[in-house]
Amino acid sequence: MRRSLAEFHLKDEHEEEDIGTSSPYLHSAGSQASSTSLASSTPHNGMHDGAQIGMAPRFTDSLNMLPRNFRGSTSSLNTSLSTSRNLGSVAVSSSSTTSLPPGRPRPSLQISRTHILPRRSVDERRRVRKPAPVSDLLFEPDVAKKLGRWILGIAVVEFDIDEGPIISGIYPPLETLPDEEENIAFSAFPDSLQFDQGSQGHSFRFRDMLTPGSQTPVERRPETSDGYIYGFAHFTQRRDATSKRGYQQVSVVILTQHQYPALFSSIASILGPMFQCHGLPMLESACHTIAGWSDPTPGTTLELGFLGSAIHVEIPHSIDTQQLAATSSFNEKYDPRLHILASAAPFQPPPILLFEACLPNLWSIWECLVLCEPILVFGSSPAQTSQAIWWLRDLLRPIPVAGDLRPYFTMQDGDHAFLVNKLPPKPGLLLGVTNPFFEKSCAHWPHVLSLGRTVPTPTGNASPALGATTGPSPGWKTKTHKRYISKDRAILKQLELACRGNDGDRLAASLALRRHFCSRTTQIITPLARYLNSLIPTPDEVKRARGRMSTDTLRLKPFSTANFMAALKTHGSTLPFKSSSKRTEFYERWLRSPAFGAWLVQQENIVKTILHESYRKESVT
Fold first, then answer.
1. Containing H/E element for 235?
2. Are the C-beta atoms of 389 and 165 separated by less than 8 Å?
3. Alpha carbon separation from 241 to 29, 46, 194, 278 (Å, rounded)
4. What tens digit of pLDDT does each residue of 156-170 get?
5. Cα gap 215→200, rounded to integer Å
6. Through-space distance between the first and last CA atoms of the chain, rounded to whole angstroms
7. 20, 31, 19: which is closest to 357 by C-alpha?
8. Is 46 helix (H, G, I), strand (E, B) or coil?
């Protein structure tokens, strides 16, 4: 049964402080957490199940010290478990999906039991999706098809004392594999918490494991363009006297095939509080609303209604197109609070706060990105790491991403053994982590970026701030990189002043920094674009191809490194390289990187498409 949106509004007692947008990122993985990151709205009354006074339970601290291949899967939960608490008061009798098949047997691991471990032993747990009420959530095939243009579904994940993080349901019902469900369940929750009550938003990405043709028509889900699924989570923790742990912990996750972090982070921040207040009916309303949106046509600007809010969003022409505020298609002055550049990173909180401890090193970090160097990004929360990873990815445009990127990566991820091992890290890998385990397992990585700024260590009898975590101290550490290009000291001065200013100053400085590096990325490929123009077939060559009735030669001529380097020496570059030898060394390295290969293929396809289209038109006339 659908209900009017007018019935749904957040009452005062349900309003919650959004940690993801209010935290000024003062703390980092290796620093003492600032008290400003807390969102406690009720007195500390003590908690059940041995929890410490005034501290949020670290629900996955022990679980996350177990690599995925040492965990068993979990068993089915009782259907009625916390249904009224987490999924509203809808009376139902049916389950959301069929229980998933049990996973492969896994070896056990002897560990000491604490009050924060699930009650079942590692050996006897078997992960399935928990049955949940969906009888009132009716999705006609045409509505589900329209919804699939934008998202795959919305998942609700809760923490159960016996099972750990477990999916309560995905709406509309979505066919998923067991490994995909584990990725969703564990990635939806932070490794550890730095607030007693409140909410926080973050994002993650995992591999699409369903191969084309492996699904029946009834189960078919929209295909992904890059082989990955993106999750945008809104996690909430509240005190709950009825819970054995003293807390209710729920995450609402938007699952999508689109790489639009600014858009879906905004959507999740609207849906999360509404779901916490009204339960299941909000999922139905959200999905029907999204199904009514116009197509996400590249290059369009849309006004999208969502649960009482109006969202103005610009869809990029392609995923590698730079979306800049100055060139956006909004018919008014750009305001990041009102306008969304879909593929950009979220602008709130101001991103420069993430990098405050390493402002002078930003130019080295950018060079490592361009050269496809792997970077481990360490933060104190998934909100930090996911915003930072999307920000770094944004600075690469218009150069395509040639490596993997994980905004928030856990030890339970199905790709853990593939991405984190004793071998050298894969080129271009950007890994956002919060678990201190990674500091040791990734000790051989060449570059580590730890987010935030250093807070002075308390002296004397002072107590550390709530939420302090372990890990590398804030800053940039590199074992191999030496900078090729001079930094912009005027921009650096603006950033340093902004960090001591107000929120408006920090946002303006963040946008200026983004423009600066987007300009530098474009300057990298300017000499290459100039050289590629000499490889495009001439009009005479195109005419001869038409005479032979052949399109085989309608493509770029082979790229010659020697010829390009000669052209570079002649024409130079607008980038302020420290010396001509540094310029030569930089381009020699970049031409060997996967990023150059991906960019060259992209340019060849563009030229080939244009030439073939011209050939087709000439043939018709």
1. strand 228-239
2. no
3. 31, 10, 20, 19
4. 999 887 788 999 889
5. 34
6. 58
7. 31
8. coil
